[in-house]
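Assemble and predict.
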Amino acid sequence: MELLRIDRLAAGIEEKELLHGVSLTVGSGETHILMGPNGAGKSTIGLTLMGSPEYHVTGGKIFFEGEDITEESADRRAKRGIFLSFQNPVEIPGLSLSDFLRNAMEQLSGQRMKLWDFKKQLRAAMDVLQMDPAYADRDLNVGFSGGEKKKAEILQLLMLKPKLAILDETDSGLDVDAVRTVSAGIAAYREQCGGSLLIITHNTKILESLTVDRTHIIADGRITAEGGAELIDEINRSGFEKYTERAI
Amino acid sequence: METKFSTRLPVPTFRFLGVNGTERPLPAEQPEPEVLSGTGIQRLDVAADAAFTVAGGQTVIMDIHAEHAYLQTHLQANAYEKVRLVQIFHGDSVCSRLTADLADSASAELIQIYLHGTDTVSDTEIRMNGRKSAFTANIGYLADGDAQLDLNLNVIQSGKKSVSDIDVQGVLRGRAKKIFRGTIDFQQGAAGASGAEHEDVLLTDPEVVNKTVPVILCAEEDVVGTHGATAGQLDARGVFYLQSRGIPEAEIRELIAQTKLGSVIRKIGDAATERDVWRLLGREDADEPFTEE
Amino acid sequence: MKQKTQVADIDRSLYDFRYDEDASDLLASGITPEIIREISEEKGDPEWMRQFRLHSLEIFAKTEMPPWGPPIDGLNLDNIVAYIRPKSRMNTDWNNVPENIKETFERLGIPQAERESLAGVGAQYDSELVYHNVRKEVAESGVVYTDLESAMHDPRFAEMIQTHFMKLVPPTDHKFAALHGAVWSGGSFVYVPAGVRLEIPLQSYFRLNAKGAGQFEHTLIIVEDDAYLHFIEGCSAPKYYEAGLHAGCVELYVGKRATLRYSTIENWSKNMYNLNTKRAVVAEGGRIEWVSGSFGSHVSYLYPMSILNGRGAHAEFTGITFAGAGQNLDTGAKIVHNAPETSSHIDTKSISKSGGISTFRSAVTVAEQAVGSRSSVSCESLMLDSISRSDTVPVMDIRTDQADIGHEAKIGRISDDAVFYLMSRGLDEQSARAMIVSGFADNVSKELPLEYAMEMNNLIRLEMTGSAG
């Protein structure tokens, strides 16, 4: 069943168009990989799908569960079940991780949450990610290391249980152990809610425990190749070069 | 007897800025100071003109909800004594003068929270004469509506190796006007002293007026002084980040404004008072920290 | 007890030289309407200027001394002779400049500087511009660089001057602006037409000479849309026993998308009262860049002001102040954000030594309409001993929620570790400290043309060790 459909999406920042008509469909429960060289427009896709005010859609449409969400604000999209794991999570001084998460969960469900239930869930999720519980009381992302920030993103994924998780370079800059922990978090998400994944990555380590349904190669703001999991191996062998010219 | 209550920037500057001082009329009669001594936590309900002298060894929490009142407080910390003062201001037309004398190795901790007051003038002078005396201040304010908040903090460091640390967190909304003058004054002879001050203000409405005057005066070579101040809006990236987790923009503004004061409230160290302050901020649930079980 | 380097009072003979002045030209001491009329007549002012001077004098008489800042009671205004007419008239040829004046400039290295491909030199000897030359190619591009008095009589510029003169700094601004309006004399006029980008800097070197003389030069610079100018103003004065006064005025008009960089190294003799007013107004997308070094004078009040009136206008202020024995230097900057998306950056350093007092004073104001504006202020102070003083008095006044304003200040001393580190590499303590102070000043020196950066480093070295280089 179709969950997300991007139809000839053109988008950019300020005056500059970065995506030139990208089309892509993700079905329920599927895992998609988006790969491409630096500057290809990978992060633009993630941020545009989430509704970043910095990016402007200049053409095309985004559909989620069949509804046009192209003009919707980020919080509305989140309520529909879209989640973006940020490449650079923002620091919010003064707002503790736990206060934030509880507020977000209450917004999504539309009802108050019992503190005890919340704590229990948070504990469990932090255990999966081997996070020190003290982080719950720390200000959101403030003073977190790169790895801790990525874990905090996956923690939010586990707590908010979206239908579609877009992971933007969630594995970049992580050491081997951290990649393993983050992978475990992603696996737990799949297991617990069976949501779809759109993974933007360079690294194939994070994919080892996942069954990839489809791979998309993006270059210069256009999808230049698509295929199954085998495409990942080919990229690993010979790089992006042959895909930078060809547009499908 | 004084008839005016006045605050003054220790060194005057350009007149057009209107930051050199403030005056308010004083009540004709001022009460004799009540001397507070003993140990442990004392809670005071300040509903009218009052004067207190607080001796070392105590924590005093003042709930100041008076109208048209003048509050005088003096902290006297003798050698090696510690004193803590928590002042929660939420009255109307309140003038407060706080002085402190800190002897050798004495320390004072000041927590001031200003909420919803309409016209509050607060003048604080901390005299750190003692060697290795220490002063920390955590000040938080939320001014909204037509509130006017005028804060003057002057920390005079004459003691060798004295240490001061001042952190101010604030939110201005509506048509609120605020002046914060914070001075660290290193006197000659205060060798080895250090002082730091930081103010962080969040402005959330177009008609607010925010004035900040972070002064450092220095007549001693062997000191380290730092000052920082930021004022600004919610960071657009931060708003988008929180929005992407499903929180609407209006709620984000409220959340950030409330939690801005959270770091100050957490310093109170008295659960009942902290809950009261959260309630004043409109947070009915006023949670205990996550890790406290 | 830490060992302090003993530093002798610096030898200023390099800068403190002067020639006897012929007393015949000194007008009567004291400032009266008669003197103003005399000055005006002598200069052949147009009628509006004569009225302007007299009106300014009235304001001067009515205005109080500033209630803040360093004391200026050592200044006896009645004894300051407002105007001294030099022996010479305008010269375009170096050979015609009178010998003693020429010698003074030569000791300051000005003709050499010109030979080294500088665009033009306007050197003020006492009150009038005596030597003035703009390179041919600069003149051919339509750039005007002349003295303000001649320009006022030139039909091409007369109206332009009347509409701009003391409009940015009105005589009502403060007491010394009023005095300036009454007795101003000499100074530069620069006009850069739209689209002209002057790659080489224009410069002028001011000096005070006659005993008890005040200097009231006026600089008016208009940089039209899309143009670029770098103007360098250098000041140095010989030493006198009577208090001297400098109350100059600089008015800068920066057009749309234009850039003006205004660099100054002020090195007045240490009995001078330097009460100078500098102000720039910047139109849409324009930039003003101030680079300012304050070394000499007994007392200084100097806060160049940038008024950002057009959307996206930008101001940058980079400054250093060095207060030594007997000096009280009150310096800083003012920025007015008056339009949306304007931005400003202030970066200052100050050094206090041998009883000197330095004060950094600033005002950053952000008006309601200046939405989307940004400002950052950074000031660092270095205390070199405990008989000196260093104060920091910044003010921010913000009236919109859509602005991002930051301020940071630091005060401290030279780190013992740094001195030790340099000494362990073979430097003596004095040189090590001098080197660290020069490094501290590099925010300014890296913004200056090489020869000025070298001069500034020499000044610092002089102040630190008593000898140059």
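The first helix of chain C runs from residue 33 to 43.
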